[in-house]
Amino acid sequence: NRWTYTADALYSHTLYNDFPNLQTYTYGGGISALYSFAFFSKPAFFNLREGATQTFLKNRNYVWSNALSGSFIVIPHNRLRTTTTYRWTYSEYDNNGLEPDFTNRDGFTNAISQQGTVYLNDKRTLYLTTGYDYERGDPLGANYVKRAHGFQEILHFPIIEKVEGDINFKYKVSDYPKYASFKDRRKDNQFTLVTQLTRPLTKFLTLAL
């Protein structure tokens, strides 16, 4: 049994085709503590992470978020891994909108997710991950009370030398049961496709693009 500690940082810049002047910049980082142990004689891990992000819209503060998450990871077979995660998030926006009882987005979000990963080679560089998550958002404004379900597929594969790639597809459907600004009840369907390249630079540092 032992603890391992890591730190991470991120930066993202988002552009919108339909609104070229609308750009967002996000900075963030966090720390994680990973505890390894045996669970019914199988390798298992508990990971605790605390992280925060700050997003700017058109160079002005837009939203600050702080998240605390815990993950329970079990490896029942050398070709299989399961992960259960709970995440608590608090978000605070730059303004409360014109009608705070409906438009205030400050508040808490609770989410739980389940993932299963199947390794397709002995080196564990080729694998497929399937996941599901449920998210419950309870901000102060009724318009943003949210119940969401998400489904995810991730393919990770080796490319050349030590470079590896990821293709990440996610579908998320969000229901807003208290939405009051329009007569029709709001329901969002979101499709996300992300590709990524990674390469370890040292034993403790990995480059991701």
Which short descriptors sum up this protein?
209 residues; 11 strands; globular; 73% strand; eleven-stranded antiparallel β-sheet; mainly beta; 1 helix
Topology:
Layout: E1 2-15, E2 23-39, E3 42-57, E4 60-77, E5 80-93, H1 100-103, E6 107-119, E7 127-139, E8 146-160, E9 163-176, E10 186-200, E11 206-208
Note the gap between the termini: 33 Å
Helix proportion = under 10%
Contiguous uncertain segments of 5+ residues: none
The geometry reads as globular
Strand line-up in the sheet with most strands: 1-2-3-4-5-6-7-8-9-10-11
- Tally of separate helices: 1
Order of helices and strands: EEEEEHEEEEEE
For the largest beta-sheet, the strand count, sense and barrel status come to: 11 strands, antiparallel
Strand content: over 45%
- Radius of gyration (Å): 19 Å
User: How many strand elements?
Assistant: 11
Would you mind describing this structure in some detail?
The structure is a single chain. The protein is mainly beta. The chain contains 1 helix and 11 strands. The protein has one helix at residues 100-103, and strands at residues 2-15, 23-39, 42-57, 60-77, 80-93, 107-119, 127-139, 146-160, 163-176, 186-200, 206-208. The chain has an 11-stranded antiparallel sheet with strand order 1-2-3-4-5-6-7-8-9-10-11, with no helix packed on it. The longest helix has 4 residues, at 100-103.
